[in-house]
Structure prediction request, 526 residues.
Amino acid sequence: MANTTTYNLADLFEQAVDAWPERTYLIDDESRCTYKEMDARANRLAHHLAEQGIGPGDHVGIYAYNCVQWVETLWAVFKLRAVWININYRYVTDELKYLFDNAGLKFLVVQPEFVDRAKEAQPGLPMLVMGPEYEAALAAQSDVRDFAQRSNDDQYILFTGGTTGMPKGVVWRHEDVLMALGGGIDMTNGSRVSSPQDFITKGNNGFALTTFPIPPLMHGATQWSIMGQSFVGNTNVVRAKFSATDVWRTVEKEKVNLLMITGDAIARPLLEEFKDMKANGTVPDVSSLFAISSSAVLFSQASKDEFLDNFPNLVITDAIGSSEGGGNGISMVKKGDSMKGGPTVMAAPDAVVLDENLNRVAPGSGIVGKLARFGNVPIGYLNDPEKTAQTFVTAPDGVRYVIPGDFAMLEENGTITMLGRGSVSINTGGEKVFPEEVENALKSHPAVFDAVVVGVPDERWGERIAAVVQFRQGHSASLEDLQAHSRSHIAGYKVPRELIATDTIVRSPAGKPDYRWAKQYALDNV
Prediction:
């Protein structure tokens, strides 16, 4: 039986297995499994890993596309009180070498197509290859759940980054990350679970949902869908790669209730495909779908409005948060809402805005500060005491805050408006411009499919604003057209002064804009 006295993530999963053994837990491209079946296979894998010398605190990499085996490895590692490390499958060898070394990997579970690259990154690293070798390893082991007592202090590490620098490993205690990202604190009302049993009660109070988190499992938002939904007995669908056509067909086939997306990177292709399906009379039955949840990446108002045009009764939420900061707030989207930059959200109970002196700003003060969280926050960054000291600070009020670098304003009614990450802000003539605000304005133009905004050198202003734009197929617009359109949404000094067209905007697999690529592309083409 599960140890239900802790908020350890493996304990919570095992508690769910015991409560709903026959419910379907996970569906991938090739298979599906119940809670009981997932638990049994994870137990077998955990026993195999233990035979390879994996134990408490050891780091095990997972290098694969979304699949059942990714999730089996997730739970197997936690069952041993070890720590799994998410690996970006787009990384080249030099990036992998950095990640493998920084993470201190002791073992790797890997899909066949990534084996050669993994061996090049760290020769001699012990590994288990998904496929026949993996299945043989599981078949040779017991499925008995006979693991040692676990702790709230066991660690979860989420590697993040890659758009503005090398990846960083954020180190969390299980209890803290559960509260910050795993549903321990309800962002809609601020309530906090009082015991592990609360998750079972919640799961028994409604019907089991089928959720479809679309981004890769190497992205924190999908990890927390897979884990958090399990604690309340829901079903998850995963797919190895994103295809807008497949998403809509899967909604019909699996009767999906909730889609989890990362902003426009997923929303816009879904909308374009749905529009084509309507035009061709091939729209599948998507009547089961009643909610879309977005986080981590800009979800423009134009895309939100288009979803509501097609699905008037859809519940759309836009959440803010980060790998370091957890969930900071959530908004319930209405058609025609205005956006000043990122979304304006109902603040989580432990989210605040701090001024430059690390004092909390007053509601409605108009001060642009930095978003911060207190309470259940990470231990710090793995092997990086300098960056840990910069991001996790004790303020004059004696409280330890995490300050990831997002600028924000605290509105009169207590909501928080996100403005953007300071590391990619543009200084033009002394005015600070946050790219998300300009990108949101550009994406409301009917010819624009996607856009990323960066600063390029300017002799007079220091930097001027450049828009790297991917137009919709068969459409285009001039710089003057986009400037005129933007002026109705943002102040004149924020309007782009350069337009650089591209066939494709480069984004991470999670949908985050690659500002390093955009900056270089703009510099090469202005």
User: Anything to note?
Assistant: The chain has a mean pLDDT of 94.
